[in-house]
Amino acid sequence: LVARVYESKAEFRSALQHEKEGYTIYKNQLGEHHEKTKESSEYLKYLTQQAVALQRTMNEIYKNGSNANIMPLKVT
Questions:
Q1: On the CB side of 52, how many CA atoms lie within 13 Å of its CA?
Q2: Quick check: 57 and 70 in contact, CB under 8 A?
Q3: pLDDT per residue as tens digits for the range 4-52
Q4: What PANTHER family does the record point to (predicted)?
Q5: pTM of the model
Q6: Do the Cβ atoms of 60 and 69 come closer than 8 Å?
Q7: What is the residue extent of each domain of the chain?
Q8: 9 contacts: CB under 8 Å, gap ≥ 6
Q9: What stretch of H or E contains 56?
């Protein structure tokens, strides 16, 4: 839940940190094959993709200024 709040604010580094903590807890307590562990793993992948997309967008803005071709981020 905390990770989703950070995601909504586009604070992907914090979101990833909190979700990694959650994933570790799920994995240690429930096992690698539990549904919650798998969901957390998928969410980590999604957050990573969003963080990369944001960084690429920022790089494009810095490189090309206001003429950058900016793709919107997906917000869940």
A1: 6
A2: yes
A3: 999 999 899 999 999 999 999 999 999 999 999 999 999 999 999 999 9
A4: CLUSTERED MITOCHONDRIA PROTEIN HOMOLOG, EUKARYOTIC TRANSLATION INITIATION FACTOR 3 SUBUNIT EIF-3
A5: 0.78
A6: yes
A7: 2-67
A8: none
A9: helix 35-64
Spatial contact of 72 and 62, defined as CB atoms under 8 Å apart: no
Structure tokens at 43: 């969410």
- Element (DSSP H or E) covering residue 26: helix 12-30
Nearest Cα residue to 15 out of 24, 23, 4: 4
Q: Decide: 12 and 54 in contact? Cβ < 8 Å.
A: yes
Closest listed residue to residue 57, CA positions, set 3, 6, 12: 12
d(CA 70, CA 1): 28
Distance of CA 64 to the CA centre of its chain: 25
Output the six-digit token pair for 75.
């917000």
